[in-house]
Amino acid sequence: MTRILAVAFMLLHIHPLFARANMIMEEESGRLKVFFTMTDREGRRAVLKGKIISFSSKDILDKGDLFGKAQEKNKATVRLYSAEAINEGDILYVVNQKNLIVAKMEVRTIFKSRSFGDMLVGYGNFMLGSVGERVVREEADEVSKYSYIHKARGDYYENVGERGNAISEYKSAIQLDRNDPSARLALGMIYLKDGLDQFALREFQEAYRNINRMYDREDRFILLRSIADIRFREVYESFIPDSLKEDYRKEAIGICRDALRLYPESERMHYYLGVFHYRAVKPDDRKARDYFLKVLELNPSHPEACVGLSELYYRHDNMEKARLYAEKALGADSGNERARSMLRNIEKRQGLK
After folding, report:
1. Alpha-carbon distance 174 to 185, whole Å?
2. Domain span including residue 127
3. Cα 327 from Cα 343, distance rounded (Å)
4. Which residue from 268, 270, 280 is spatially nearest to 312, judged by alpha carbons?
């Protein structure tokens, strides 16, 4: 009996099929918490991807390592449970028996072995690693791989006009990675186009909480601009309580400033800031004037900025400039009622009715 058990034990660890089955059994409990330092009490969720089977040295010297001193034990071969959703350039971690991360690797090559199945070669500093230790990926990185697939499908459906399917795919992406700002932004933009401001704002706010995960500058700006658009309408075109409008106004000022850090030449953000300062409970006319003037610097035919300046100068009894900008507004938009009203008010004040 003892001999039979010994043979079975040997087969389990030597024969590829048995070894593969052994790994699959371990994969069933493949989610774990790993720790980056000995003092890390929180840890992070990770997904088990495979095991180290050997270490070696890179064939190419790193820049700055002229004498090859760091070449020993910097190339790892990993046997994978599955190569699905693993790509060259991905970051994986090696963990010891205490679930402490002892090495970080970048995936260099993925291949299939007849004996061991899916394999990869990764580069990193493995001086603290040992053969047999587990290789993991952060859970956030794991789910984002699949989230990205649904996001890409959603983009396709949106581009071909199948909005219902696009919404479904974006929601699937969000289910897999609730902190993915790109799927939130895309879903919010659909709602915004349909005039569903509150649904759009909910998605935009979730995206904003994770804006640091947005690597595209244009996407960041679109997100900030869209939030500013909604807040502007809420403050000046809705019937919500004044106290709430003031809160939204202050929030929107910060959003507009963030947007201008990305695109300093955005006339819409400058215009919003001009209005937010001009039509505040405690107006800041100097800032409002400067923002409106910046709008006209970017677009001399912006009628609303002209009217804003006309109203500002009228408030400060400068009828000459008030008339100048009211006439400029009408020159850009002959049907602008605010500009016509300003001219009538100026004429009354000057006794020229």
Report:
1. 11
2. 14-58+72-132
3. 8
4. 280
92, 46: one domain: yes
Domain assignment present for 306: no
The total number of structural domains in the chain stands at 2
Sequence-distant (6+) residues with CB within 8 A of 164 are none
- What pLDDT is recorded for position 182? 94
* Number of helical (H) and strand (E) elements in the chain, helices listed first: 13, 7
- Tell me, yes or no, whether 144 and 172 share the same domain: yes
Q: Which of 132, 161, 182 is the last residue of a domain?
A: 132
As a whole number of angstroms, the distance between CA 77 and CA 88 comes to 14
> Both tokens of residue 223?
């997100």
pLDDT in tens, 80-98: 998 877 878 889 999 999 9
CB 82 within 8 A of CB 137: no
Q: With 90 as the cut, is the pLDDT of residue 144 above it?
A: no
Query: Which regions of 126-225 does DSSP assign to beta strands (E)?
Result: 134-138
Q: How confident is residue 142, by pLDDT bands cut at 50, 70 and 90?
A: low
Rounded Cα gap, residues 31 and 308, in angstroms:
59
- Domain-terminating residue out of 115, 132, 149: 132
Please report, for the domain that includes residue 85, its CATH number.
Answer: 2.40.10
d(CA 104, CA 92): 6
